[in-house]
């Protein structure tokens, strides 16, 4: 099982970083590179296919799933609804200690504006932590699945000029609403943040 999980991680990383959407997955080449047999690799590909990250084509093999403009629009729309609801919940129910955890991540964001990769990583950690605090495992699963689809899109919204600064300002608005325990403002701020990300991803 551990071997299959490791294989899934390797194939997923390759699929997201090395292969373009729609690209054929060369099983033999990947198996040789990672020093594994094709059996666990094929099982890993089946797992990724079940998650929607890989598309299996009859008698043609496995391909990186392609995400079109409508797919991204639909994903961002659902993300905005789910995360805005989570933000409103956090504004209402979070403990002082939980808000401090989010504030700490926000402060790390403020110090990472010159490093796009680090900023992206901390930004994702902030969203994951907020969802964790909102304490709805079904919403967590849904958002996690949606994020997988988003990551198939190679266009990174944070590469747009001024987007990092804009994103940071949006996070500041979210934090302010959370600390004020303003559920409506938290909901609106998070929804605006996700929608801005969609516009930047273009």
Key attributes of the depicted protein:
2 strands; single chain; 9 helices; Four Helix Bundle (Hemerythrin (Met), subunit A); 202 residues
Description:
The protein is mainly alpha-helical. It is built from nine helices and two strands, in the order H-H-H-E-E-H-H-H-H-H-H. It has a two-stranded antiparallel sheet with strand order 1-2. A hairpin with a 3-residue loop joins strand 1 and strand 2. Mean pLDDT is 86; it is low at 1-5.
Task: Give the topology, please.
Blueprint: H1 2-17, H2 27-34, H3 38-50, E1 54-57, E2 61-64, H4 69-93, H5 96-110, H6 116-134, H7 137-151, H8 163-179, H9 183-201
Antiparallel strand pairs: 1-2
Helix pairs in contact: 1-3, 4-6, 4-7, 4-8, 4-9, 5-6, 5-8, 8-9
Short description:
The chain has 202 residues and is mainly α.
Task: Tally the helices.
Answer: 9
**Helix content class:** over 70%
Q: Specify the CATH architecture of the largest domain.
A: Up-down Bundle
Regarding CATH, which class of the largest domain? Mainly Alpha
Secondary-structure element sequence? HHHEEHHHHHH
Provide the low-confidence segments as ranges.
1-5
Radius of gyration from CA coordinates: 19 Å
Mean of all residue-level pLDDT scores:
86
CATH homologous superfamily of the largest domain - what is it? Answer: GntR ligand-binding domain-like
Instruction: Please give the oligomerization state of what you see.
Output: single chain
Distance between termini? 39 Å
CATH fold name of the largest domain, please?
A: Four Helix Bundle (Hemerythrin (Met), subunit A)
Largest sheet: 2 strands, antiparallel
Number of strands: 2
Task: Give the tally of structural domains.
Answer: 2
Question: Approximately how much beta-strand content do the residues carry?
Answer: under 5%
Q: Globular, elongated, flat, extended or rod-shaped: what is the shape?
A: elongated
Biggest sheet: strands side by side, in what order? 1-2
């Amino acid at each position: 099982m551990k071997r299959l999980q490791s294989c899934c991680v390797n194939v997923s990383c390759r699929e997201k970083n090395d292969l373009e959407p729609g690209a054929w997955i060369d099983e033999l080449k990947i198996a040789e590179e990672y020093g594994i047999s094709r059996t666990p690799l094929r099982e890993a590909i089946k797992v990724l296919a079940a998650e929607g990250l890989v598309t299996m084509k009859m008698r043609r093999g496995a391909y990186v799933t392609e995400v079109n403009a409508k797919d991204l629009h639909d994903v961002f729309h659902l993300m905005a609804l789910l995360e805005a609801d989570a933000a409103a919940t956090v504004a209402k129910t979070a403990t002082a200690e939980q808000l401090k955890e989010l504030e700490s991540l926000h402060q790390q964001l403020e110090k990472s504006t010159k490093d796009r990769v680090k900023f992206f990583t901390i930004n994702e950690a902030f969203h994951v932590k907020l969802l964790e605090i909102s304490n709805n495992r079904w919403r967590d699963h849904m958002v996690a699945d949606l994020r997988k689809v988003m990551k198939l899109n190679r266009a990174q919204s944070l590469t747009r000029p001024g987007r990092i600064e804009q994103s940071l300002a949006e996070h500041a608005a979210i934090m302010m609403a959370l600390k004020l325990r303003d559920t409506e403002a938290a909901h609106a701020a998070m929804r605006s943040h996700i929608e801005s990300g969609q516009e930047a991803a273009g």
